[in-house]
Amino acid sequence: MTQPIIDCRLPITDCRFSISGCRLSFLLIGLAFFFYSCEKLFLADDPARDPLSNFEYLWQEANNKYSYFEYKSVDWEAVYDTYQPLVHDAMSDRELFDVLADMLFELKDGHVNLTSSFDRSRNWDWFLDYPPNFNENIVYRQYLGSDYLITGPLHNQVIDSVLYVYYSSFADAISSDHLDKLVDRATGLKGVIIDIRSNGGGSSGNAYALASALAGQSYTYGYSRIKNGPGKDDFSPWRRLSITPRSGRLFTGQVVLLCNRASYSASNLFAQMMKSRPRSILLGDQTGGGGGIPAFGELPNGWTYRFSVTQTVNPEGDHIESGVPVDIAVDLDPGDEAAGVDTMLEAALDVFR
């Protein structure tokens, strides 16, 4: 740190007007040295730069608020005993980041991240450990074609009297007008295929909006609660999760939902909405999960983190954190893929054929 320079070479002429002027000059010099000494003292013990303080803060925040310790059989005290000895004052930011990231990785949760100016930790095992079961190039070239409609984020095409809808991200907003136009196009057809393969999530509000346009009646699709204390049983009461038909136009016919392991978070929630809907079939591979809503925070050193603070279960009380199972399991066949055929989409079309 560059030290402030104080020029103490006061000329004698500075004191020629009065003794009080000299006293004021020396007083200002003394104050400058005092504040500089205090600054050095505070910087030396700055807790924002202390690796152990940041470790303790993150561990305690997760201990008090993370929602899936018991469900995932994670012994957080044992995790502390493993990683705390690795933290020391002489470690670099990179070394501290790696220790904290490894500690958070123990949660086995795609909603858990640590973000610094130089990296972002993540756990993507929920889809990397499984077949991709999706080829977007084939979807656009062989099924959507060159004349599909772009209804906001809902790319759609009529195939064999079935409306095929590809929705790549729930982060892309759906308007009431989009839903009206989609329902109008589906009316009179055999049914609708909604493809959320490799849709990593986004807004649960968009998931609810789409489900509400497909609801002929209100229905319950699950329950949720939030972690509200440090104890393992410190949760709010369960809150019912329901779908209510929207006020606009509705499609209440047969729906097939295409999903894979990369369907996560809001996609996982939408899959559960469709799982509970009458006249719906889930086809493909189980979703990747992500049943908890993440909360965000900041470490003393400015790095940000997030982790799940809620739980979501289906109407039977089963957690959807690890994914929603499909009704018909189908994988993308490598031979079909090489020939430009989407095995899973063809199987969805066969439901209507």
Offer a quick outline of the entry.
The chain is an alpha/beta fold and 353 residues long. Helix content is 34%, strand content 18%.
Give me the secondary-structure topology.
Layout: H1 19-44, H2 51-65, H3 76-83, H4 93-105, E1 113-115, H5 125-128, H6 136-144, E2 149-151, E3 154-159, E4 162-167, H7 176-186, E5 191-195, H8 204-212, E6 219-226, E7 239-243, E8 255-259, H9 266-276, E9 280-284, E10 294-298, E11 304-308, E12 310-313, E13 328-329, H10 334-338, H11 343-352
Parallel strand pairs: 4-5, 5-8, 8-9, 9-13
Antiparallel strand pairs: 1-11, 2-3, 3-4, 6-7, 6-12, 10-11
Helix pairs in contact: 8-9
Number of alpha- plus pi-helical segments: 11
Strand order across the biggest sheet? 2-3-4-5-8-9-13
Portion of residues within helices? 25-40%
Global shape: elongated
Number of strands: 13
Euclidean distance between termini CA atoms: 74 Å
